[in-house]
Amino acid sequence: MFVSEVPALQEFWYPVARSDAVGDAPRHFRLFGDDYVVWRPGPDADVHAAVDECPHRAGRLSQGWIEDGALVCPYHGWRFDGTGRCVEIPQKEPDLPVPPRARVKSVLAEERYGLVWACVGMPRAHVPDLPEAEAPGWTLIHEIFDVWSASATRLIDNALDVSHLSFVHKGTIGDPKHPKLSDFRVERDGYRLRFTVSYTSRVPEIQRRNVGITTEHTTRTTHAELVQPFVFRGLLEYENGIKHVLYRTATPVDDRTSIVCQFVARNDDPDPDRQVSIAELDRMVQNEDRQILERIDPDFPIDLNAEFHTRADRMTVEYRRVLADLAQETSLLRREDRRWSMTREEAARGPIGDAGAGLARPEAGAEARGD
Ligand code: FES
Ligand SMILES: [Fe+2]
Q1: CA 279–ligand 2 middle distance (angstroms)
Q2: What is 128-371's CATH superfamily?
Q3: CA spacing 20 to 30 A to 226: which of 110, 194, 317, 365?
Q4: How distant, in Å, are the alpha carbons of 30, 107, 313 from that of 368?
Q5: What is the per-residue pLDDT across 219-236, written as a single tens digit (0 to 9) for each?
Q6: Is residue 179 within 8 Å of 163, Cβ to Cβ?
Q7: In sequence order, which ranges of the chain are alpha helices (DSSP H)?
Q8: In percent, how much of the chain has pLDDT > 90?
Q9: What is the Å distance from ligand 2's center to 289 Cα?
Q10: H helices of 162-228, where?
């Protein structure tokens, strides 16, 4: 399954830029393979986003500039306000009106947690509520906002997949001699998943400074949550009471590329030096994931018969069910699906069949089977 084959995924919000990166010039971003522009009409103004194409002659608005609160197209100088309406056409007679159809195609944009989020469809939910990221007593640290050559599905699957830690992260927090997870149950509520699991984590030198644990190994508990299909929250609890809430989002730039955004909230009031050190370790850990994920096929199997599963994979099995349910809603997939591998371009060429028929659909709210 490619992300473009499941239009329901366009009904969620995704981080497309850091707030502080949207300053006095418009910025380009891509979502689901399409080009958009985001801009801020003034220093304290709300952000706006639209399809990156001028309604006049398709000039790239992201190559334009901001002047007197208007977004100016670089091609013939048409000006647009924050709602996308054209407010000035320099070539027309001044006393003639601007036609109302002269407007850019706006999309939804909002700022939260120091990030600009966009939704290009009809949103089925709000920008996700991530309580610790803005609650008093917690310190928010931005760690990663990078483009990776990996699909959003693979990225979030990896975030849910605790059993890879001891191997992929053997250079940092993992130890292949301790691969076992505690028993756990995956709870499902609509498209949300939750589970709690404990495991042995290695404590490298940098982590000793970060969490104040001096033993070689520690038992770490992760309270994991799939908040939205491409938004993961993991509350990591250490034996000494420190809580490290890790948020990882994957923005589907296209079928094979994603923005990886990661930020954390800490309950131990880390000073600026320790914040740098916390971000440094998490970036080392994410680089280990990146080495693996950028080499994996971005086509994500949601057919449960396509892969081999173990008891330790219950959360990622359930993730496949969540995506299969979303695919069933409005999918471009076809029954004779060539192993779910049709790209959007191919879908546009072919008929839309009985989308996703034959997939098992678990009841919403049901708990994943523990077997
Ligand atoms: S293409 Fe934008 S003003 Fe002409
Ligand atoms: Fe990892």
Answers
A1: 15
A2: Naphthalene 1,2-dioxygenase Alpha Subunit; Chain A, domain 1 (3.90.380.10)
A3: 110
A4: 35, 36, 11
A5: 989 999 999 999 999 999
A6: yes
A7: 152-160, 165-168, 205-211, 272-293, 314-330, 344-349
A8: 80
A9: 5
A10: 165-168, 205-211
Ligand 1: nearest atom to the Cα of 78: 3
pLDDT digits (tens, 9 = 90+) for 9-26: 999 999 999 999 999 999
pLDDT tens-digit profile of 290-302?
A: 999 999 999 999 9
The string of pLDDT tens digits covering residues 106-133 is 999 999 999 999 999 999 989 999 999 9
As a whole number of angstroms, the distance between CA 91 and CA 120 comes to: 32
Whether 78 lines ligand 1, by a CB cut-off of 6 Å, is: yes
Q: Pairing relation of β-strands 86-88 and 139-148?
A: unpaired
Question: CB neighbours of 157 closer than 8 A, spacing ≥ 6?
Answer: 300, 316, 319
Structural domain 3-119, CATH architecture: 3-layer Sandwich (2.102)
> Is the CB of 65 within 6 Å of ligand 1?
no
pLDDT at 349: 54
Q: Whose CA is nearest to atom 3 of ligand 1?
A: 76
Whether 224 contacts 197, CB under 8 Å: yes
pLDDT > 80? residue 30: yes
Q: Which own/partner contact pairs does 328-331 have at CB distance under 8 Å and 24+ positions apart?
A: 328/355, 328/356, 328/359, 328/361, 329/8, 330/6, 330/7, 330/8, 330/355, 331/5, 331/6, 331/7, 331/8, 331/355, 331/356
Q: Where are the domains of the chain?
A: 3-119, 128-371
HSE on the CB side for 109, CA within 13 Å? 28
pTM confidence score: 0.87
Nearest partner of 249 among 352, 127, 86, 346, judged by Cα: 127
Please report the pLDDT score of residue 105 as a whole number.
96
Tokens linked to 250: 């994957």
Q: What is the pLDDT of residues 82-97, one digit of tens each?
A: 999 999 999 999 999 9
C-alpha 177/C-alpha 201 separation (Å) is 10
When the pLDDT of each residue in the chain is averaged and rounded to a whole number, the result is 89
Distance CA 188, CA 156 (A): 16
The two tokens of residue 297 are: 């096929």
What is the C-alpha to C-alpha distance for residues 71 and 125, in angstroms, rounded to an integer? 29
What confidence score (pLDDT) does residue 204 get? 85
